[in-house]
Amino acid sequence: MSRDALGFRRKFGVLGPSTNTIVQPDFEAMRPFGVTNHYSRIFTPNSDAVSNETFLAGARLIGNNTLDAVHSVMTAKPDYLVMGMSAVTFFDGRKGADEFQKQVEDASGVGISIGSHACTAALNAYGGVKRLAILSPYWPAMNEQVKLYFGDMGFEVVRDHAMQARSWIGIAEITTAQCRDALRQLDGDDVDAIIQVGTNLSMVKLAAAAELWLGKPVIAINTATYWHALRQNGIQDKIGGMGRLLEEF
Prior knowledge:
Oligomer: single chain
Radius of gyration: 17 Å
Number of helices: 10
CATH architecture of the largest domain: 3-Layer(aba) Sandwich
CATH class of the largest domain: Alpha Beta
Strand order of the largest sheet: 2-1-3-4
Number of domains: 2
């Protein structure tokens, strides 16, 4: 069978909001030789997310626009899809995540890695994790959806912190120092692992570093999602500098 000259191992179609400027470079940094990423932008007006209600409405709008991006990227005949937007994958708990995954897979005819289930797979790969702390750029109402999901998957969310970004673009403007301070607030002896959600929040390198000084799993959702896509496609390359998940599992 003929293969793509550069994506001869796998071609990934990546779906992400049009306002997202972090997930594309993050996925490129984790991309092994012979794998290519083909980004398809989900139309997302940069409306100010100044309340719980407008954040939830905006996230659901992105979910509703996802299939247009799916149909667009499928013209490149990718082997697999990777969801570069996390909020929509947490709505309505496990049931909602399963329904979203099925909808995209039915429309595309290929598999997809989504952030919520990828994080669960990552936690199970580490093993021994029961109690979580959650860091997000979201508003509290969206964090409730994240907690609902992880509860459905058998984890206890001990603490969470919503950084309440004022706009979709504003998520990418949250600094490493702000994220570091939030991690310190979330950590404690009662937490087995920390999960960061929100794909437009730059946390891949900080999460890898934080694992060293916190001595526990710190999982950035972009790392978990791309790791999951690689492993689901039989690509076992170990990638350094991105945390234990990509280095060990």
